[in-house]
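In keeping with the milestone schedule agreed at the kick-off meeting, the structural modelling team has produced records for the first pair of proteins. Each record is given below as a sequence line and a structure-token line. The laboratory manager (R.T.) confirmed that both were archived under the project's standard naming scheme.
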Amino acid sequence: MMKEIHKGPTPSGGVSSEIYYFDSDMNPVDKKLASFAVIRELDKDGNLIQETRANLK
């Protein structure tokens, strides 16, 4: 899975979040192979309110 969608409150006040997984060259990869993740928090209209990058290794 290269993307996860979560419905429900987020830390920044959003109503949903999306998590994208990438390798060390920032190519989309399966979660099990990921070195990095980008977490996007969205408001009720789908607008981006917060984006966080995480090092997974």
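The second protein of the pair:
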Amino acid sequence: MRKILFVFSLLVSLSLLWACSDDDDKGPTLSFGRPIYILKAVDSLAVEVMVSEPVTEVVRVPFTVEGSAVEGEDYTLSAREFTIQPGQMIDTIHVKPKDNVVGRREIRLSLQEVPGYRLWNNRWAMIPVETKDLFTGSFTQTSMDLKNEIVVSAGMKVAGEDYMYKREELRVPFEIDPESTAVEGEHYEIVGGGRELYMGVMKATADVTVRFLKKEEGKDKVILRLVEEGRFEAGTNGFVVINVNGPTRYEEFVGTWISPNLISVDFIKSMVWGHPNDCDNLPLNNPATDKIVFGAANTLNVDGVYGDLAKYLRNCDVIYKGEEPEQLWDQDAYGIKRDVVTLELSKANVNYSAANVTERPAIILVRLLSKGKVLEFRVVDYEPTDFLTGTYKDQMNPGWGDPPQYPMRELYPLVFRFTKVE
């Protein structure tokens, strides 16, 4: 309604101007194509000038620019005069929206006198400027560890509502804070080299990838900060601190870890549907006295495990398979990616059952948290027979396509947190 009233007031103003025009003179006339144009939020606008008969030589038509809209801030012009070529009756310039986020602004164009031509009715053109959305961005994390490569993400809001899953791209500017100690190109790199977080079509977050290059004492911190300009402002988390730690070595897992706490129960329950009894026998018996020991000779000793984890774990050899980003849906609704280490256990009972035993090599995913004092131990390679049985069958159903190599990995991970014995 406000936009309609705004445009109506402009029409009234123009009608008063037209009333003052002198239509009695003879000769060719010059005029804008129409008295009112509207500059859309994101689309370029064509504004034309017209003459009443074809010109015989080049005619240049200057114009002045006024109004509350600010050139260079709200819009740009492709030219500052029209140029009508011989034999033609029309020429066009383009008005392109820029960072037009302030409401109720307009552009007023006024044709100037041209010898041999009369200015006709539409000697003025009014252009109300529609506003773009103003985005508020917040990083999804305030602190991150860079091992090999990480995806840094920011959630976006418009008018307090989440902005996600749109059919258009969005590029969000950021900068490297001068308080950063790591040197770009030496200790880390921004993949692609740009300074924008990119939200693709139908994506939930704006992302940029940061890659590890070298670890150096005292030069191990990068601070990314959202740039507040134009259409963008910072929200709650306007910056993120990235600790350039480098890849996790197997030696960092060596030692005794106690008190397993299964933290993914609520997430797993939220992912189960159509099988009301699937979560009845989840492995919840995990005494604080349980302990596992990673040995320096690449071994895992589980003699100290007496709870439900004993149904899965076996004393075995351990092979370090590498570290890479993993999408952790259980950690965040956005499915944040974090570097995780893949370890291959030479033996595990993948049925996770005392009554049913299928022993084979299996992978686990591990992370070190809280400066190496907490071990996150993710059981993702399992074929359950005591719980989640209906869910597992669904995951393996060929009617849903080829079953994944690790069907329980993404949405049904059994995630434990252990504490290190100092």
